Amino acid sequence: MAVCETCGNDYDMAFEVHAQGAVHTFDCFQCAIEAMAPICEHCGTKVIGHGVQSGEHWYCCAHCARAEGNDGIVDRVMASTTTV
Questions:
Q1: Under DSSP, is residue 36 helix (H, G, I), strand (E, B) or coil?
Q2: How far, in Å, CA of 71 to CA of 80, rounded?
């Protein structure tokens, strides 16, 4: 059995996450997210999707990135309407 590094639960179905040269042990995805997900630097939510990165800064969405002065970041780019 392995002990979850977030909650301390000794669980027979714990799993390992290998990231950036380190190995982490968790008993559930919730504990893994709590320990490893970056935090949006504008609204404070955990970034559990792709999020947006500007330099060394992480945001949950383009809106939050723009609110922190990162112009030009968008959630979606319109598809080209040109036909061939």
A1: helix
A2: 22
Overall average pLDDT of the 52-77 stretch: 91
Contact 60, 40 (CB under 8 A): yes
Q: How confident is the model at residue 44 (pLDDT cuts 50, 70, 90)?
A: very high
Is residue 37 within 8 Å of residue 47, measured between CB atoms? yes
Question: Which of 1, 6, 2 is CA-nearest to residue 34?
Answer: 6
Tell me the β-bridge partners of 19.
22
Both tokens of 11, joined, read 């669980």
**Look-up: residue for tokens 């320990």?**
35
Question: Do the beta carbons of residue 5 and residue 15 sit within 8 Å?
Answer: no
Q: Is residue 20 exposed (0-12), middle (13-18) or buried (19+ Cβ within 10 Å)?
A: exposed
Here the tokens at position 50 are 């792709």
> What distance in Å separates the CA atoms of residue 82 and residue 72, rounded to the nearest whole number?
23
